[in-house]
Automatic annotation (TrEMBL):
<dbReference type="InterPro" id="IPR029056">
    <property type="entry name" value="Ribokinase-like"/>
</dbReference>
<protein>
    <submittedName>
        <fullName>2-dehydro-3-deoxygluconokinase</fullName>
    </submittedName>
</protein>
<dbReference type="GO" id="GO:0019698">
    <property type="term" value="P:D-galacturonate catabolic process"/>
</dbReference>
<dbReference type="GO" id="GO:0006974">
    <property type="term" value="P:DNA damage response"/>
</dbReference>
<dbReference type="InterPro" id="IPR002173">
    <property type="entry name" value="Carboh/pur_kinase_PfkB_CS"/>
</dbReference>
<dbReference type="GO" id="GO:0005829">
    <property type="term" value="C:cytosol"/>
</dbReference>
<dbReference type="Pfam" id="PF00294">
    <property type="entry name" value="PfkB"/>
</dbReference>
<keyword id="KW-0808">Transferase</keyword>
<dbReference type="GO" id="GO:0008673">
    <property type="term" value="F:2-dehydro-3-deoxygluconokinase activity"/>
</dbReference>
<dbReference type="InterPro" id="IPR050306">
    <property type="entry name" value="PfkB_Carbo_kinase"/>
</dbReference>
<dbReference type="GO" id="GO:0042840">
    <property type="term" value="P:D-glucuronate catabolic process"/>
</dbReference>
<comment type="similarity">
    <text>Belongs to the carbohydrate kinase PfkB family.</text>
</comment>
<feature type="domain" description="Carbohydrate kinase PfkB">
    <location>
        <begin position="4"/>
        <end position="292"/>
    </location>
</feature>
<keyword id="KW-0418">Kinase</keyword>
<dbReference type="InterPro" id="IPR011611">
    <property type="entry name" value="PfkB_dom"/>
</dbReference>
Length: 298
């Protein structure tokens, strides 16, 4: 199995016990999923399609990706840009995030149809999110969806997490339109119910699943925090409640890790109910620990 995850990896600055001290790391929604896919599927190839700069911090990010076993052959290098950054701020136990990503190199990841085609040609499954779409200029977003659609017509599978982030978009109507355009070229869509309810007005997870199914998505998986998750697969619905997590420490990457757990289980032959349980088991581990990227054997 060859996966191609498409999106933005950012530098993360995480506060340490010593006031004013931060630890530098790397994260980003699609990267987090790539990280977990890599660990769950040692025999798979997991590549990342993005763009970075040509400076030292971009070199360091590439070294990090390669060190995690992620194939960087399709990372584009830009001389006039660098990678995006975010800072985690702690107010008591409450985490908030400040972002510097408006001019990040990743925003240029879909400027060249030839690069997209070359990367997709070597993959069986492409994975992207609503954040991937949000950071692209309109023409680039259209190009990415067009090339995904063409590749899919030749047998590729597209997996999409809408990951709705209104602040990254000019307006929510554009966000919702782009998300449904991406769904139209996707085989599997993995939305989170609370976001979908807020921006699409869905009244329950079944309504979210039905809306994507009506857009011809054959497999819809609706995440729902600690509530029952739902998979609508080829017309059949199954519901699984995540096992309780004794102590939720940090919900960062809950959905991203869930997606990897679900995808890996499905690739291994699990039915949707078993794959929901596998996704929830991984997400439960991740939210019981601080940080987005956990070493699963550590
Ligand atoms: P996102 O992080 O994308 O908003 P959710 O909050 O719906 O997604 O969480 C994704 C998955 O993580 C859930 O389907 C569930 O398996 C797990 N999860 C999240 N929060 C909890 C929780 N409080 N207790 C147990 N599992 C949780």
């Amino acid at each position: 199995m060859r996966y191609l995850c498409i999106g933005e990896c950012m530098v993360e600055m995480a506060p340490q016990a010593d006031p004013g001290s931060y630890r530098m790391g790397y994260a980003g929604d699609t990267l987090n999923t790539a990280w977990y896919l890599r660990q769950l599927m040692p025999d798979a190839r997991v590549g990342y399609l993005t763009a970075v700069g040509q400076d030292a911090v971009s070199d360091a990010m590439l070294a990090f990706l390669a060190g995690a076993g992620i194939d960087t052959a399709h990372v584009q290098r830009r001389g006039d840009r660098t990678v995006g950054l975010y800072l985690i701020q702690l107010t008591g136990a409450e985490r908030s995030f400040a972002y510097w990503r408006g001019q990040s190199a990743a925003r240029t990841l879909a400027q060249d149809a030839g690069v997209l085609d070359a990367a997709l040609t070597g993959a069986d499954v492409a994975y992207l999110s609503g954040i991937t779409l949000a950071i692209l200029a309109d023409a680039d977003r259209a190009r990415l969806l067009d090339r995904l659609g063409a590749w899919r017509a030749g047998g590729g599978r597209v997996v999409f997490d809408p990951n709705l982030r209104p602040r990254l978009w000019d307006d929510t109507a554009t966000m919702c339109r782009a998300v449904m355009q991406a769904a139209a070229v996707s085989d599997t869509v993995l939305p989170s119910y609370d976001d979908e309810a807020a921006w699409f007005g869905d009244t329950d997870p079944a309504a979210t699943a039905a809306r994507y199914a009506a857009a011809d998505v054959t497999e819809v998986v609706v995440k729902n925090g600690d509530g029952p998750m739902l998979a609508l697969c080829d017309g059949t619905t199954v519901t699984v409640t995540p096992p309780p997590v004794a102590r939720v420490v940090d919900t960062t990457a809950a959905g991203d890790s869930f997606n990897a757990g679900y995808m890996a289980a499905r690739a291994g032959g699990a039915d949707p109910a078993a794959a929901l349980a596998a996704g929830a088991a991984l997400a439960g581990r991740v939210i019981g620990t601080r940080g987005a990227l956990l070493h699963l054997d550590g």
